Amino acid sequence: MKFNKKIINFCNAQLVLFLLFLLVVAFHLDNLIHYDTTVALLVRIILVTIALLGCALTLALKDYVQNMVQSEATDAVGIHNKKALEKKLNQIQELDDTLDVGIMMFDMNGLKYINDTFGHDEGDRFIKTFASFLTRILTENSFLARYGGDEFVIVQEHTSLDELEKMNMELQRNVDVYNTQAEHEISYAVGYEVSYKNHYYLVQDLMKHADEKMYRDKAFKKSGSSQEQIQCRGVSDVGQIISVSELAGKLFTLKNNGEEHKTYMLLLMDVKDFHLINEFWGYQMGNEILQFIWKRLELFPKVVFTSRFHSDVFVAVVDVTGEALDSCLKMVAKNNQILANEVQGKYPVEYFSMNTGVYYDLNREEDTEKIISHTNTARRKAKEQVDGICAYTEELAHAELLRADVLHSFQSALEKEEFILYFQPKISGMDESITSAEVLVRWQRSDGAILGPNKFISVLEECGKVEALDFYVYEKAFQWMVSQRECRTQPVTLSLNISPFHFRDIEGFTKKLLDIINKYEIDTRYLIFEITESAYIRNRDAVNGMISILHAYHIRISMDDFGSGYSSLNTLKDIAFDEVKIDKSFLDGSLTEKGRIVLQEIFHLLKRTGKSIVCEGVETKEAADFLIQEGCDELQGYYYYRPICMREFEEAVKEKRKAS
């Protein structure tokens, strides 16, 4: 290397001498020789030729030596090699400080597979393609070198962690676009570190930390997602669709390379009722709107990454360092409103809204796939919110943990008979005796904890498992009725609930129910089945069909939660129910004069249509006295009894009968 530099210096000096000689020949030759004009011209030509030839040979020699020097510092893929990198690092180390110096280390995934399967020529092309993508993200302060094999290093001066993050995101975008049509997809691991005031590193430490981060990133991406990425990758009219594993990898890279003070927010968002846009305006219009949304999301303040997740669902990662959750939610709401206004202004849709799930601070959890799942949960919950935005909070996390627990342990709990019956007595409006009871269910866990139905019923309804629980309850209730019959105890009417789930197959449900009734030889005069008002409104024909079947077997039907928010008076003329159960909301708080008037009129209408009346939520003597005075047939509530276990219910019935 030193010898080559001496040759280059010699060439430079020789070139200067030849140029001086050429100047002398051109301008001072006549003063040096005194031959005639012809001879002087001939000498001038010869000397100029010699000078020019000398310059050409000197330049050729210098170029040859420079190429030799450059080839010694250049890799086969046309970038700096390891020796050049070591020289660069030594130069930086010799500076007064290494502040604002960054190191990015890259390692390609799957090169061995390419070499072994398609040969080393294809492997070399694979490496060169990735190197070309690396050159696209370089700036004037970048130094790119191949560290060896499939590893690359970028030394970035006068930089920051944010700049390295943006460089990597640009690289990821370029690679993602390439992969949509590539025969062999590119995947890589990355680690980067910056030396700055509060985290000062020497060059060796920068390399070490970047290398550690890169191998953590590689371990994560190698742990089981590479094949899944290939299988899940998709391209649509709107653009590339990112898979869960790909998104998880990108989130891990951010978390792995970011500092503790960095806060990232993950957003998953969808268009409310997007199928209506497709159905009314057509798929072409729908795709144009989705394309617009995707491009518009890139303008979100401090957005790090955006992509289409699936269907009309989009994902975005936003740097919200220094922002509290409340301000982030306001930022999301503002951006959603701006987006809605722009869509309505650009396209002929009169209504547009986004549902957005928010996961604040990726550092809260290690598992990035769980973070995605949690954000998706928040997105689904956002559909229930007025503003269409929901953040994944500790309360939501607890609810989801309970939901998962219910789903995974329900079948085992059913087999172990962990579900136990509770009864809430109904009191006669005539003599205040116990005339019937509503059958309720509690889940008594193996650890002794008892869960109320609000903790598990809705979950079981969502996943279609409530049918098994309902028939479990029916059978246990019928077994109790048989035991009472065998003890020759006077029968007590039981009210049992019918889940809305069963209206999907009323023939199957009623057949199975009647089979169990026949199995235990139950006197159907002592059975009432409760159907909620909301279930009736949504499934009117199915409910009336079920009532018709059950009436044929002398089974009575009660409308539960009457008046809980639907246009109930309009349904009174058509309902085939035997009993109407007034919702407890009528008795919430103090019973006002207007409240009394409303109840009196409802009672009057129900009595005239021949319906029995039950009021639930009776908690005060004032309410009980009023309802009895107005002719309520049965009263149910904490004023009389809370839900009690089977043994306590039997004792309560005995005591009431003794007292009468």
TrEMBL record:
The lineage of its organism: Bacteria, Bacillati, Bacillota, Clostridia, Lachnospirales. Residues 99-233, 262-394 form the GGDEF domain. This is EAL domain-containing protein. Keywords: Coiled coil, Membrane, Transmembrane, Transmembrane helix. Residues 403-657 form the EAL domain. InterPro entries: Cyclic-di-GMP_PDE-like, EAL_dom, EAL_sf, GGDEF_dom, Nucleotide_cyclase, Rev_trsase/Diguanyl_cyclase. It comes from Jingyaoa shaoxingensis. SUPFAM superfamilies: EAL domain-like, Nucleotide cyclase. The chain crosses the membrane at residues 7-29, 41-61. Residues 154-181 form a coiled coil.
